[in-house]
Amino acid sequence: MIRARPHHVSDIMNILRHPNIIKRGFYRPNWLRKNMDNHEVWILVNKNEEIFGIIIGIREPPVRIKKLVIRPDVQHMRLGTRMVKEFIRDYEATAPILPNTLPFWEKLGFKIVRQTMSLKGNPLFEVRKFNDNSQLDEFCR
Ligand SMILES: CC(C)(COP(=O)(O)OP(=O)(O)OC[C@H]1O[C@@H](n2cnc3c(N)ncnc32)[C@H](O)[C@@H]1OP(=O)(O)O)[C@@H](O)C(=O)NCCC(=O)NCCS
């Protein structure tokens, strides 16, 4: 997984605009470029820089995955699992997710903390993965 750079923008946009990917916000090329300056767009690539997956989020604690998309033709090959694990490492993390993808997030140890709405009016779950220490802190408080 690497940080996306400006020359990746059109390939990223092609994946985000794929008809099988649910549109949840308004991601534009300029917005992506601006986020790359903040190191917030990460991509899973092969050695030819072909893009298989995208995470838009904040990798430093508090870790937040704002968007995760695996290219439709390579879904269900554990790439999403790999990207999330590599992105969050041992930190606690949160993400707004589409309800139908909940089983994916639950397998990674995330739990629903509340329900929200997307900009386009789709229901979203806010999920969170606690690390062992924070659960222990909560228990001892
Ligand atoms: C959801 C998504 C990120 C999962 O990534 P992936 O690489 O395909 O998933 P993995 O292969 O790592 O799956 C691991 C487990 O999660 C579950 N899972 C995977 N995709 C799922 C999905 N779409 N819905 C529910 N559960 C799912 C499965 O239980 C799977 O285990 P299994 O293969 O033993 O059945 C990916 O399919 C994706 O990007 N889908 C498009 C979602 C979308 O439209 N997003 C745009 C709005 S943000």
What does this structure look like?
A hairpin with a 4-residue loop joins strand 3 and strand 4. Helix content is 30%, strand content 30%. It starts with a strand and ends with a helix. With 141 residues, it is of the alpha+beta class. The protein is built from five helices and seven strands. The chain has a seven-stranded mixed β-sheet, sandwiched between helices. The chain has a single domain, classed as Gcn5-related N-acetyltransferase (GNAT) (Aminopeptidase, 3-Layer(aba) Sandwich). The site of coenzyme A (COA) has 20 residues, from strand 4, helix 3 and helix 4. Coenzyme A binds next to strand 4, helix 3 and helix 4.
In short:
The protein is of the alpha+beta class. 30% of the residues lie in helices and 30% in strands. It starts with a strand and ends with a helix.
Q: Would you spell out the secondary-structure blueprint of this structure?
A:
Blueprint: E1 2-3, H1 9-16, H2 29-37, E2 41-45, E3 51-58, E4 63-70, H3 79-88, E5 93-97, H4 102-107, E6 111-117, E7 123-129, H5 132-140
Parallel strand pairs: 4-5
Antiparallel strand pairs: 1-2, 2-3, 3-4, 5-7, 6-7
Bound molecules: coenzyme A.
Provide keyphrases for this structure.
about 140 residues; alpha+beta; 5 helices; binds coenzyme A; seven-stranded mixed β-sheet
Q: In CATH terms, what is the fold-level topology?
A: Aminopeptidase
Counting DSSP H or I runs of 4 or more residues, the number of helices is 5
Strand order of the largest sheet: 1-2-3-4-5-7-6
Mean pLDDT rating: 90
| Radius of gyration from CA coordinates | 15 Å
CATH architecture level-2 label: 3-Layer(aba) Sandwich
CATH class: Alpha Beta
Helix content: 25-40%
CATH superfamily: Gcn5-related N-acetyltransferase (GNAT)
What's the helix-strand series? Answer: EHHEEEHEHEEH
List the ions, cofactors and other small molecules found in this model: coenzyme A
Summed up, the domain count is: 1
The shape is globular
The computed structural class is alpha+beta
* Largest sheet descriptor: 7 strands, mixed
Distance between the termini: 37 Å
Q: Beta-strand level of the residues, as a percent range?
A: 25-35%
Number of strands: 7
